[in-house]
Amino acid sequence: MLEVFNRVALTIRPDTDNPFLQGCYQPNDIEYTATSDTLQVIGEIPKDLFGIYIRNTHNQVHEPIGMYHPFDGDGMLHAMFFHDGKVEYRNRFVRTTGFFAEQGAGRSLWPGLTAPDRYQRRGWGSIGAMKDNAGTDVIAHGGRLLASMSQCSEPYRLDPVTLETFGPDAEWGPAIMPHGISSHFKTDPETGEMMFFNYGEDAPYMNYGVVDPDNRLVHYVPIDLPGCRWPHDMAITKNYAVLHDLPMFFDPEKLAQGRHRLRFYRDIPSRFGIIPRRGRSEDIRWFEGTPCYILHLANGYEDGDEVVMDGCISLDPTPPAPTNSPDRYARMLALLDKHNTRTRMHRWRFNLKTGQTHEEFLDDEVTEFPIVSNDFVGRPYRYSYNALFKPGAWLMTGVKRFDLVGGGEARYDYGEGRFGSEAQIGRRVGATAEDDGYLLTFVTDLTANRSECLVLNAADIAAGPVARIVLPHRISVGTHACWVEGDRIRGERIRGA
Q1: Alpha-carbon distance 439 to 98, whole Å?
Q2: What is the pTM of this model?
């Protein structure tokens, strides 16, 4: 079966010069439902792969207000449901309040990241002026998907199989507004609890919360920071969460004038707050580290007296744009180009006994978007799978596997003119080893003018895909993804602490 579920009318000017609205980023206007009998499969879909691979995407619908940033577009989920050697594909918009409002108006009503000062109506997010697009992150928790944007938004719930939007979470969503929830919330695979944070421009500048496996908000506390910050990720371990206070944030003087200008303060140390799972602001132990910015973490875990956090660090997150470039998008690309910001795998060790921080680079190659198996989140682990990037562009060209215990690495490059998105690990049914399963990602092929879902052996990614599933349309490249195990589709499986 191949069904057109819905079409939307795109109002973006066909002659746009914005590179993030064309090519790999060209928005989709059709929502499809497709089953195995109508999808071309190159290779064979593994019969022991049971679950759903879901990727979020910023999919702009209307001509933007101001300069479009690739984090501004409406959320669109693309999902592959694997079961019994078969697969179903769906893509659906996250139908937020902002999406419905702009559909009714037939035009953009909110500006994006580059022009928040041009807002004319109440908005969402930490700035309070943007549309809630729910287009950054997506995970499964409590039998539903949860989608949000990185600047904090309402927690939108969706059905993991049909991708139907149920709206903002009705159980605990109202309790955290107007701050909402930032992207990169974490689910503990043993307890089924979900940890999250949000942030804003008013004291105390951050909040931290815990939602239990039955979707009840069981902990929500303010976190005192010295000023307005711009965090992006957090880590969890068996007993703790790690919150970030990093020296890249809005210039306070300009912010007092209502202007938003991000700066990197190279003379201010990074701070990392280790808070007990149900702790309060006064329970945090703050550790200082090298001035840096962190977009995405691989994992965190406890090792004796130490809390270990692995992720991708940038020591130069705001490199200057080319001064002689006539391209008005040069500054935006300079900040997005991972080879320009030199983002690399890094490890922090926070010693709870001595209060000391130890840091080390784990690799010198530019990588980002590190992911680990869901079953090892917050626990000691061995493998991280990181995206590789094209120099001078914000495009993922392949994936690199790190063996952080035994050493060594492996990689798979998507090929000329082929660009991927954040991968995920789908472990085999009955898996025992950490890498006993499959690496999944979407790839957009500009040469063949199509998109595919790749299925690789997670233990041997260099061997190439065991299956390539051709989608019914070429999809826009996207950001974050999740894997929903077959036995977690309708609720958390609690293994016990």
Answers
A1: 34
A2: 0.97
